[in-house]
Design goal:
This protein has about 375 residues and is of the alpha+beta class. The protein folds into four domains: about 200 residues, DNA primase, PRIM domain, CATH 3.90.920; about 35 residues; about 55 residues, no CATH class; about 50 residues, Ribosomal Protein L9, domain 1, CATH 3.40.5. It has 13 helices and 18 strands. A hairpin with a 5-residue loop joins strand 7 and strand 8. The longest helix is centred in the middle third of the chain and has 21 residues. It is globular and about 70 Å long.
Length: about 375
């Protein structure tokens, strides 16, 4: 195992030894499939099941995975292969990731390169290379306060849709910070467990504003998109004398289209449609950052600060050699930017973050003690 990975695994092991009690198993844990990515092999070990949360915690303390997941689905035989599991239903899962949101901060810290021709640039990676047209794009992403705030805004919009338009109760809706670049929203209500992929796709289209007949919702309504647009149009008309006099139809249509785009939610549709999806296990660590997967109460979501409230390691310091890193915030402090080769002494949480991002390594003397 490479020295940096050995160091990260050691820190993860220390966390699980001290805080595995935080891990709460999902509802009906005995009907869930679990999956783990291992440090050494970097492979996903799937089709594991646990009869209770104590056995799960013991397994994680012993194995120390780099990442831990459980199925959104319920199964009769979760340890069997996919054909033999016996699907019983699945939670409704939404994934909101800053990777899929075009934020201005990406121009400062995200980088992409075409594997074929070498063309590169800053910002959101294109689907195809603008030079050669190939779709083989290698990207390098970062997280900052701005992009996670945008992901939170999308999450808040989604929660509003789910509760106001679909009528889910607050007890049915759970929100989790993923430990990296976004949030997962879970709906665990009996009404949705049997929904198939196509039915879930209809929910996706609704919250994303896909396929909406603008001519219909422009007429207003008491519920959903119609109500939202009607309220917005009242405000718009009050400031547009031309519309009150029957003119400006094109301007009105343009406003409605822009309004739907603004109020719709940017989610990863593939995750929601997947009836067998493995999702991150709360209170385990994300190997891309060293941060915790944290449940966020709905009443506290707006104020939630992942850079302070999702820290796993809060004690100690470490001397590391940086491999060039953008600036970042953690634990109420600002760090960086750092040039390649710089040796710095950082709080353990910040040092672990940079190592997990592949941007630093412990100084050699300390590494030798671990391998």
């Amino acid at each position: 195992m490479p020295p940096v990975e050995a160091y990260i695994k050691k820190k993860f092991a220390e966390y699980y030894e001290a805080f595995s009690w935080r891990i709460e198993g999902p509802a009906e844990i005995e009907k869930r499939e679990f999956g783990f990515i291992l440090f050494k092999e970097k492979i996903m070990v799937r089709h594991r099941s646990f009869k209770n949360v104590e056995v799960l915690r013991s397994f994680i303390k012993t194995v120390v995975p780099s990442d831990a997941y459980y199925s959104s689905a319920y199964y009769l035989r979760p340890e069997e292969d996919m054909k033999g599991k016996g699907w019983l239903g699945a939670e409704l899962i939404f994934d909101i990731d800053a990777d899929h949101i075009d934020t201005p901060c990406k121009e400062e810290h995200d980088y992409w390169m075409c594997i074929k021709c070498g063309r590169s640039g800053m910002g959101l990676a294109p689907e195809a290379c603008p030079k050669c047209g190939e779709g083989k794009i290698q990207g390098e992403t970062w997280i900052c306060r701005s992009c996670l705030e945008r992901a939170k805004e999308e999450t808040l919009k989604l929660v509003r849709f789910l509760m106001e338009d679909f009528g889910f109760d607050a007890n049915d809706v759970s929100v989790y910070f993923t430990g990296h670049r976004g949030y997962h929203v879970h709906i665990n209500a009996k009404e949705i467990l049997d929904l198939g992929s196509e039915e879930r796709k209809e929910i996706i289209d609704y919250v994303m504003g896909n396929g909406i007949d603008l001519s219909l919702i422009e007429q207003g309504g008491r519920h959903g998109w119609g109500k939202r647009v009607a309220l917005a149009m009242e405000e718009f008309n009050s400031s547009q004398g031309a519309l009150r006099r029957g003119r400006g139809v094109k301007k009105k249509a343009k406003f409605v289209k822009a309004f739907v785009k603004e109020k719709s939610v940017n989610i990863d549709a593939v995750v929601t449609m997947d009836l067998h999806r493995l999702i991150r296990l709360p209170e385990t660590l994300n190997s891309k950052t060293g941060l915790r997967v944290v449940k966020v109460e709905l009443s506290k979501l707006r104020e939630f600060d992942p850079f302070s409230e999702a820290l796993a390691v809060t004690n100690g310091e470490e001397e590391i050699r940086v491999i060039k890193a953008p600036k970042f915030s953690l634990g109420g402090r600002e760090f960086g930017p750092y040039e390649e080769g710089r040796v710095v002494h950082l709080p353990m949480a910040a040092a672990l973050f940079l190592m997990c991002k592949g941007k630093a390594e412990p100084v050699e003397e300390r590494v030798r003690k671990l391998v």
